[in-house]
Design goal:
- The chain is α/β, with parallel strands linked by helices and about 100 residues long.
- The protein has a single domain (about 5-100), classed as Transcription Regulator spoIIAA, CATH 3.30.750.24.
- The chain has helices at about 30-35, 60-75, 85-95, 95-100, and strands spanning about 5-10, 15-20, 25, 45-50, 55, 80, 100.
- The strands form two sheets. A five-stranded mixed β-sheet has the order 1-2-4-6-7. A two-stranded parallel ribbon has the order 3-5.
- The chain is globular and about 30 Å long.
- It starts with 5 loop residues before the first strand and ends with a strand.
Length: about 100
């Protein structure tokens, strides 16, 4: 597919927002993992914004589960927001709508 990119911002208080580009796939693994591991010590909630994401693969699904596990260990929350209908359908098929907070 295409080249994906990931960027993260910490609001300095309680939320880290990770924005994912159009392609959330295996090419994002390193950047996505770095985006959240570099900010876990902030003791913040995490938001993954998929407003630009049109393609998501199984590696991306695994990354979301890894992030969720890391965030829960710190008694914080993960929210996935701004999903396209296509991405929501994928989440529903693999039952992520029952595992993650999808908004």
């Amino acid at each position: 597919m295409g080249t994906g990119s990931v960027c993260a911002q910490y609001d300095g208080q309680a939320t880290v927002t990770i924005n994912v580009s159009e392609y959330f796939d295996y090419q994002c693994v390193h950047d996505f993992r770095k985006a959240y591991t570099d900010r876990l010590e902030a003791n913040a909630d995490f938001v993954v914004d998929l407003s630009l994401t049109r393609y998501i693969d199984s590696c991306a699904l695994g990354m979301l589960l890894s992030l969720d596990k890391a965030v829960r260990k710190r008694c914080r929350q993960l929210r996935v927001i701004n999903c396209s209908e296509h991405v929501k359908k994928i989440f529903s098929i693999v039952h992520f709508d029952k595992k993650l907070r999808i908004e």
